[in-house]
Structure formats: structure tokens, C-alpha cells
Design brief:
- The chain has 311 residues and is of the alpha+beta class.
- The chain has helices spanning 2-32, 120-126, 180-185, 257-266, and strands at 36-40, 61-62, 66-68, 72-81, 88-97, 104-107, 111-114, 129-134, 144-148, 151-156, 160-165, 170-174, 188-192, 197-200, 203-204, 228-235, 238-244, 271-274, 283-285, 288-289, 304-309.
- Helices cover 17% and strands 34% of the residues.
């Protein structure tokens, strides 16, 4: 009888442990893997059979690294420094708009929510993009201020954000100090919630020795050398987009946040902001991925992009 009771007790304990493990695994999958669609978004420039993709205007001048038409000029260059374990490879896109800023954003699968992802190139091609970079991967977290196309999709202040204004300027701000209503009154069309701010009012924004973006599972300091994506402004309607490759010896180790901030500053940015990096870091131009994500040529799915549509 005693042995039977002991055996029953052991089986019960094992069953409880398995239920706990299953509950934890389900919670993790639900939080970080399962798609949760909150809003289906009307597409801006999505290609359909009824409305074929826009072609590049006949007046445009372009090659594999440059594009120019009546409203915009895009110049991309690849830069390589150092060698061996110190090698760094990065890509700089210098973009100028002559009439009005046509920077747009798009969600993966035209849906706002968590864990909804597609490759940057897939989202870009679906939205008839001429140029694109990955965004802030808003869908990995459930806080932050997310305004896209003038619509507030999430209003849960948590960190330093970046606003793109209708007048072609960038504004870095503290989400807990500037409300969404204030942002919209200033002419904000899009916000991004990642960070940190790299350059503010023409100066390096601060000390980046121990920056943490959010409180999600596995969060850690992002100061160390990593692949990077960032956006900066030299002057109204004049932007810099930089993507740094990394994690591949003899090709690129990536950049620290301090190095990334210094690079934007050296290139003349008066404002600059760090977007999602690592395997997300991707630059797309005229139908191809320009950089080499993680040195493997494999993109990682992201929740959103910043892009320039074909004219």
C-alpha cells in the first residue's frame, strides 16, 4: 500500500510539472510566436493583378547604386574599413527630396499586431518600394507609441521614440513626456519606438554603455558590436539611412552604439536614431537586398519597413 501511494504521488508530481512546463511553453509561444492581428491595414502601394506595379518614371536616371528623378535623389555606397576581426562593412544611403518627403511605412502582411512578420524585401516588393530598410520591429513588444500614416495604433509610452513630421524633419522625443495628441498637432506622420536616440540637435546624444530597449524575455544591453540599422537627418528633406552588417569574421564585426552614433555625426546628421538591428538589418534597393544580413545573405522576418515608393 505504501509503495502504491508513493508511486501515485510521484506520478502526480510529474504530471503537475509537465502541466507547468506545457503552460510556460504555450505562454512563450503565444507571446513570441503566434500571430495576433489587431488591425488589418489598408495598403498604400500594394501590387495587385488589377493594379500592376508602378514602373520607374521614364525621366529617372539610375544604376545599381543611384537613383534620381524630379522629386528624389538616392545615392548608396558601400564602405569597408579594417581587416580580420576588426573589419566593418556598412551601407549608407543619402536621400534628398526636392518637393516633398515621400517616406512611407508598411506593416508585414498589411496587418498591425504582434509576431506578424515578413522579410524586408517581401514587404518592400509588395508595396512597390524603390528603396527600403527594416523598421523598429514594433511587433516584438506590446508597448511604445506607434503612429503610422497619421493613425495611432498603439499608445503605451515606454522609451525614447522618433517622429517623422510632414515638413520633412525628424524629432527624437521621450514617449512619456510628449503625448500622441501633441505629436499629431506637430504634423507627425510616423513614429518609431526602438532607440536609443544617437544624435540630438547636432550632438552625440549621450552615454550608450548600458542601453536596454525593453523588458522582454532575453533582453540585454545592445551596446556591443552588432549589425545596425539607423535613420538620420542632415536637414529637412535630407536623410541618411545606414545599415551595418555584422557577426561574420573577415567581413564585418558590426558596430557598437557609440561607433554608430559617431558615424552619423561624422556624416553631418543633426538627428539620428537607432532602429532594430541584428538579423533584421536589411537595405533594399530596386528589387534587391543591398547588404548581406548576418554575413549569410538570409533575411530575418520583421514587422515593418520604412520605404520610398516608386514615383
Amino acid at each position: 500500500m505504501f509503495r502504491h501511494r508513493q508511486k501515485t504521488k510521484i506520478i502526480t508530481i510529474i504530471a503537475i510539472c509537465l502541466l507547468i512546463i506545457a503552460a510556460i511553453l504555450y505562454w512563450l509561444a503565444n507571446r513570441y510566436l503566434f500571430e495576433h492581428v489587431e488591425v488589418v491595414v489598408a495598403p498604400n502601394n500594394v501590387v495587385t493583378q488589377e493594379e500592376p506595379a508602378k514602373q520607374i518614371t521614364p525621366q529617372a536616371q539610375y544604376d545599381d547604386w543611384n537613383y534620381k528623378d524630379d522629386n528624389q535623389t538616392i545615392r548608396i555606397k558601400q564602405v569597408q574599413t579594417g581587416s580580420g576581426s576588426s573589419a566593418i562593412t556598412y551601407f549608407v544611403a543619402d536621400v534628398t527630396f526636392n518637393k516633398s518627403t515621400s517616406l512611407s511605412t508598411a506593416f508585414a502582411k498589411n496587418a498591425f499586431g504582434t509576431n506578424i512578420i515578413e522579410n524586408t524585401s517581401t514587404i518592400a516588393a509588395s508595396n512597390n518600394a524603390l528603396f527600403a530598410i527594416n523598421g523598429d520591429y514594433y511587433g516584438f513588444r506590446n508597448d511604445g507609441v506607434i503612429i503610422r500614416g497619421g493613425t495611432v495604433y498603439r499608445d503605451d509610452p515606454a522609451r525614447d521614440g522618433l517622429a517623422l513630421l510632414r515638413d520633412g524633419t525628424l524629432l527624437s522625443y521621450n514617449e512619456e513626456e510628449l503625448s500622441s495628441d501633441d505629436l499629431l498637432s506637430k504634423g507627425t506622420t510616423n513614429t518609431f519606438s526602438f532607440g536609443p536616440t544617437l544624435v540630438k540637435d547636432g550632438e552625440i546624444a549621450g552615454d550608450f554603455s548600458a542601453v536596454q530597449i525593453d523588458k522582454n524575455f532575453g533582453n540585454r544591453s545592445i551596446q556591443d558590436a552588432n549589425p545596425r540599422t539607423g535613420i538620420g537627418m542632415i536637414s529637412p528633406n535630407h536623410f541618411l539611412f545606414i545599415v551595418v552588417d555584422g557577426r561574420k569574421t573577415n567581413y564585418s564585426r558590426g558596430m557598437t552604439l557609440t561607433e554608430f552614433a559617431n558615424l552619423f555625426h561624422e556624416l553631418g546628421a543633426t538627428e539620428a536614431y537607432n532602429l532594430d538591428g541584428g538579423g533584421s538589418s536589411t537595405m533594399y534597393f530596386m528589387g534587391r537586398v543591398v547588404n548581406n544580413p548576418l554575413g549569410k545573405g538570409n533575411e530575418r522576418g520583421v514587422s515593418d519597413i520604412i520605404y520610398i515608393p516608386k514615383s
